C-alpha cells in the first residue's frame, strides 16, 4: 500500500467525527508531530497537551535519566510547532504526581533490591492526565502517536489492542494495560504505519527532532549523582553498605556501597582466582546487607507466573491458550498460557529463557503484525521442579507462600 492510500484510509471513528475537537498528546518527538499533521490533514480541530514530568530533586540534565523529559528548548520547539499549525497548546506540569507515583515507587524498589519498571507507570500516569484533560474540555477523542492497533467490537462496546505493523517499535503492550474508558476515546493515526514511513512523512512535512538521549525503558538507570538524593531522603539504616557474596554464600566477592547502586538482574563482572568472571546481581538480604552474585542459570526459566495481569476479553480463558511471550522485539518465545485466579497466569515455555523477576512482559497470540495482545503481567519465579535421581521417586515440596 502506498503512502497516499494509507493517508486516505487513516482511521477515523465515524463521519460525524470529522472536524470535531480532539485532544492530542504532544511529546515533542517525531511521532507526535506527524500525528498532529495527519489529523490536521483530516480537518480535525486539535487542542495539544504537553505533559512535563520532572524529578525536581535531580539537579543535572534530566534528559540523561528520563527519556520523556522536555527541557525548555524542546518546549519552545513544541510551542513553535503548534503556532505554525495553529493548534492551541496547554502545558501541564506534573512533577508532583510524577514524584508520588513514579519516583517514590522506583526508590522503594532500589532500596529493596527488586526490579523497577518506571516507564510503565509513567505511561499510565501521562495517559490518565491526557484523558482527564479530554473530559474537562468536554471532548470525545484523544490522539497519540503510539504504534499499535485498536479494534472496536460493536456487540460488546469493548476495545481490543493488537500489535502494529512495526514489530521493532510496537507499543501495544503499553496500551493494553489502560482502562477501557481511555481506549474507547483513543485515535491512533500511526497504527498502520512503520517508523520508517513516519520518518519519511516527517521529512515531507519538514519536521525535525534531535534524537533522544535515552529510549523508553532506559529511564532512571543508576547514576552516582543520585547518591546525595538518597542520602537526603532515606534513613541511614536503609542505605547500609554490605558484602557481595557468591550464590551459595560461601565466599565474599567484594563490597557494595548500598543496594540502591545496583539493579536486580544486571550483569556484574568480578575477579575470581585471577580471572574475570561474569555474574548477575541477585537477591538482596536486608537483614545482613548481602547481595548475591548469581550465575546465568539462576535467571533461566521455562515456567513462570505472571501477576497483576491485564487480560484481553477478546479471547476465551476457559482453557489454556498457545501464544508468544514478548521479552523484547528480538526475544519472542512460544509458550502456553494457563489462566489462574487473582489476575495471574502460569506461563510454560518450550525452553528455559533469561527472565528477570519483576519485569513486565506481554503475551501475544502470534508473532508479527496485527496480533492480539493476550495479556501483560509481572514476572514472578515459581519453584523449579526438583531433580529426581535415577531409580528414586521424589515428591516435590510445595512452597505455599508463593502458591498460585
From TrEMBL:
One GO biological process this protein is involved in is: tRNA wobble position uridine thiolation
Query: InterPro entries per the record?
Result: Rossmann-like_a/b/a_fold
> Which one Pfam family would you cite for this protein?
tRNA_Me_trans
UniProt-recorded name of the protein: tRNA-specific 2-thiouridylase MnmA
Amino acid at each position: 500500500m502506498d503512502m497516499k492510500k494509507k493517508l486516505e484510509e487513516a482511521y477515523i471513528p465515524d463521519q460525524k467525527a470529522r472536524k470535531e475537537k480532539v485532544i492530542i498528546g504532544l511529546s515533542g518527538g517525531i511521532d507526535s508531530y506527524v500525528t498532529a499533521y495527519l489529523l490536521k490533514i483530516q480537518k480535525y480541530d486539535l487542542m495539544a497537551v504537553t505533559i512535563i514530568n520532572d524529578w525536581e530533586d535531580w539537579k543535572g540534565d534530566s534528559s540523561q535519566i528520563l527519556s520523556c523529559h522536555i527541557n525548555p528548548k524542546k518546549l519552545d520547539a513544541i510551542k513553535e510547532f503548534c503556532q505554525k499549525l495553529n493548534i492551541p497548546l496547554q502545558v501541564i506540569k506534573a512533577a508532583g504526581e510524577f514524584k508520588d507515583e513514579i519516583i517514590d515507587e522506583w526508590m522503594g524498589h532500589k532500596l529493596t533490591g527488586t526490579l523497577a519498571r518506571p516507564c510503565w507507570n509513567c505511561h499510565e500516569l501521562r495517559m490518565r492526565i491526557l484523558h482527564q484533560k479530554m473530559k474537562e474540555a468536554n471532548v470525545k477523542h484523544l490522539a497519540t502517536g503510539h504504534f499499535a492497533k485498536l479494534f472496536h467490537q460493536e456487540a460488546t462496546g469493548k476495545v481490543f489492542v493488537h500489535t502494529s505493523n512495526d514489530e521493532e517499535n510496537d507499543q501495544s503492550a503499553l496500551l493494553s494495560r489502560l482502562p477501557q474508558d481511555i481506549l474507547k476515546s483513543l485515535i491512533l493515526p500511526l497504527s498502520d504505519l512503520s517508523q520508517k514511513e513516519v520518518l519519511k512523512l516527517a521529512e515531507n512535512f519538514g519536521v525535525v527532532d534531535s534524537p533522544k538521549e535515552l529510549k523508553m525503558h532506559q529511564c532512571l538507570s543508576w547514576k552516582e549523582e543520585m547518591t546525595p538524593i538518597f542520602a537526603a531522603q532515606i534513613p541511614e539504616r536503609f542505605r547500609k553498605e554490605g558484602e557481595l557474596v557468591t550464590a551459595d554464600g560461601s565466599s565474599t566477592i567484594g563490597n557494595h556501597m548500598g543496594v540502591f547502586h545496583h539493579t536486580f538482574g544486571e550483569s556484574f563482572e568480578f575477579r575470581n582466582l585471577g580471572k574475570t568472571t561474569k555474574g548477575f546481581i541477585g537477591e538482596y538480604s536486608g537483614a545482613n546487607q548481602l547481595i548475591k552474585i548469581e550465575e546465568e542459570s539462576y535467571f533461566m526459566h521455562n515456567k513462570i507466573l505472571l501477576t497483576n495481569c491485564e487480560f484481553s476479553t477478546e479471547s476465551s480463558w476457559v482453557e489454556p491458550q498457545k501464544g508468544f511471550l514478548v521479552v523484547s522485539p528480538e526475544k519472542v518465545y512460544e509458550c502456553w498460557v494457563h489462566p489462574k485466579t487473582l489476575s495471574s497466569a502460569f506461563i510454560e515455555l518450550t525452553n528455559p529463557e533469561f527472565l528477570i523477576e519483576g519485569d513486565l512482559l506481554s503475551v501475544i497470540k502470534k508473532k508479527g503484525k496485527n496480533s492480539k495482545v493476550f495479556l501483560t503481567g509481572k514476572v514472578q519465579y515459581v519453584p523449579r521442579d526438583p531433580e529426581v535421581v535415577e531409580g528414586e521417586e521424589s515428591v516435590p515440596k510445595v512452597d505455599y507462600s508463593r502458591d498460585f
